[in-house]
Specification:
- The protein has about 375 residues and is of the alpha/beta class.
- It has one domain: 3-Layer(aba) Sandwich (Rossmann fold).
- About 40% of the residues lie in helices and about 20% in strands.
- A 6-stranded mixed β-sheet has the order 4-3-5-6-11-10, sandwiched between helices. The chain has a 5-stranded parallel β-sheet with strand order 2-1-7-8-9.
- Strand 5, helix 9 (about 145-155) and strand 6 form a beta-alpha-beta unit.
- Helix 3 (about 35-45) packs parallel to helix 17 (about 350-355) and helix 9 crosses helix 14.
- The longest helix has 16 residues, at about 220-235.
- It is globular and about 65 Å long.
- The two termini are about 35 Å apart.
Length: about 375
């Protein structure tokens, strides 16, 4: 517990907050682009400890939450097929599609497996050659290397009954979409440390230069987040816009070249729908032609599925930072963890789930 405790030290937190309060002279709005950071902020009340007028805007940093509704429905359609074993991480099981979720398919007899690694799905395919085994490959750049290695392994070993349903999304194009929006209020960003651990910092430099906004890569413990906020605010108050690394214990400027290489081999960039947001050009990855035989979307011919979001769900506005979760009329009423209308209410990184779990049930107090 030592290394966890030292990043939650109350005395150090007070010193960081004292510095923040001594620095800030005017209102500022910054966005954390990571659902894990959102949960840290809400769980520890960090947003309520900041100076008057400093607002944390919760961005589209939950990969489960931004997985498009049509991709969820494609997963459901595949999972219901006879002879299919559908594998996923646990955080996708309760994510609602148009009229059902994977848990519902499982309750009706579907072979749904919660796994802890995509390699578990490959092993299942080896052990059950008579079944089609599909892994739901969801996530930002963080999870892409493991999924890419899994597909490469399946190809090398000739495991033809394995396939990947791919829904990978990328952070830098999302920041571009946020900054290009006419409703954008973001003046600085906390970048997700785990994404930067894989991809490095190079993709963020052009964003800093183009939009003149500070971007600080940071971690997920309370002191990590406070230090990231402190550095962004120092830049804003000083009229600066730089790329900064507040997470050097994990993030190197070049990232992980080995992980990047396997991703480039197996995936290629593509346009991607984001749930509640819409199409963001070149914001995703799909399997490259060399690995197209392992594409579950094509293998099971479900690419034509189209859907419509619930009119009661304002998850898209939450994901864009336009409203806080408890400003959605359905929050805590029609939409709860037991009966979610949107993914942010059930994902472990969802902003709605954080607000519900940590009892931010009323309209937010604006700093």
């Amino acid at each position: 517990m030592k290394y966890l405790d030292e990043f939650g030290d109350a005395d150090l937190a007070r010193r960081l907050l004292d510095d923040i309060h001594a620095t800030v002279t005017r209102p500022w709005a910054m966005m954390e682009v990571c659902g894990g950071q959102t949960h840290t902020i809400i769980r520890n009340g960090i947003d309520q400890l900041l100076p008057h007028g400093v607002e944390m805007i919760h961005g589209p940093g939950c990969p489960v939450c931004v997985t498009p509704l049509e991709m969820i429905d494609r997963a459901l359609a595949i999972a219901e097929l006879p002879g299919v074993t559908f594998c996923s991480f646990g955080d996708m099981i309760r994510v609602p599609g148009s009229s059902d979720d994977l848990f519902g398919v499982k309750s009706r007899g579907g072979d749904i497996r919660v796994v802890y690694s995509p390699l578990d799905a490959v092993q299942l395919a080896k052990e059950h050659p008579d079944r089609q085994v599909v892994f739901f490959g969801v996530g930002f750049e963080t999870t892409a290397p493991a999924n890419a290695m899994t597909v490469r392994l399946a190809k090398e070993q000739g495991i033809a009954n394995f396939s990947l349903l791919v829904s990978h999304v990328l952070v830098p194009p999302a920041i571009t979409a946020i900054m290009d929006s006419p409703t954008c209020r973001v003046q600085g960003f906390l970048a997700a440390g785990h994404v930067c651990t894989v991809m490095g910092l190079g993709e963020y430099e052009p964003l800093v230069e183009r939009y003149r906004v500070p971007i600080v890569a940071t971690g997920f413990e309370p002191l990590d987040v406070l230090e990231g906020i402190r550095r962004v605010l120092h830049q804003l108050e000083g009229g600066e816009a730089r790329l900064d690394n507040a997470y050097p214990r994990a993030v190197q400027p070049r990232g992980n070249p080995v992980a990047q290489a396997v991703v480039r081999e197996v995936f290629e960039p593509c346009d991607r729908q984001w749930r509640g947001i819409g199409m963001i050009p070149q914001s995703g990855w799909r399997l490259s032609p060399a690995y197209a035989a392992f594409d579950a979307e094509q293998r099971f011919e479900v690419s034509s599925i189209e859907t419509t979001e619930s009119p009661l769900c304002h998850a898209g506005e939450v994901l864009q930072g336009l409203i806080k979760p408890n400003q959605c009329p359905a929050f805590g009423r029609e939409c709860t963890p037991r009966s979610p209308l949107g993914a942010p209410m059930v994902s472990s990184e969802g902003a709605c789930a954080a607000y519900y779990a940590f009892r931010r049930l009323d309209d937010p107090v604006v700093a």
